[in-house]
Amino acid sequence: MNRFLSWGMYNFDHMTGFIGPFGTGILNVYWNVLLIGNFIFYLISKRRKWLYLFFLQALLMIILSFFNENKSFIPTCILFLCLFISYIFVNKNFSIKSFFKLVTLFFSIVIIMTLLYKSFPSIQELMDKILEAGEQFSSGASLDTNNERAYLNYLAFKYYGGSSTGIGINTVDFNNQSIHKNLGINSFSLILIHGGVWYFIGVVQLYVTLSIISIKAKFNFQWFYLYIIFVIAFCYLSIITQPFRDHYTMFMLSMLVLFLSVFQKYREQPN
Asked: Which of 34, 86, 110, 182 fits a 20 to 30 Å CA distance from 7?
């Protein structure tokens, strides 16, 4: 542990099991991909053990995310489940019954989260930190240097041409840069500094297109819906972590594409 602490003194950043130091962002993506994968296996196999495993893992992940201060897990979990489970329902023979099932699942998640928030002071404290961090991304509070990701986004737009073309691709030397000691902690600010918002749009478009082609080739409403989902997912992940720079995170996202591809092949099989 001392070796890890020599790289970074905030010990919570190293509480990630076999993933290694500074792996909370990777762990966050892995957990959510695992939840979606188990839910897909339940839909394919119709075995309740996968559904029980889904809820058990979700509960354990919420508890563990408190102990290692993985503040991104809960909002990522809510977003990912809403996005990808809604795609699963849309991809099925969509009906009024399936719509009500989707709405019921959504409100069940909201009720469970509300009960946890009201019942456990530790979870309430964690949620308050998450809400405070979210406010800093969307307000002038982004000047708070304690929220490194929000502050890096602010620097990118304010001083390094993030709203236009940045300062040039591959012009940042991480060994000799004075922008911020934690530059690169999220992909959004780093890409903005390199090439601006248009470069960021191009990078997101590349990865989104590759992901969709791997899942579904036929262009229809489901294809377009999947496109919107992956745009939201990649933009969100680029703000909280570094999907375009870290191969471990990209591997976890590749697992998500694999799970969705398996479900797509299952749906396309004749009854």
From this structure: 34
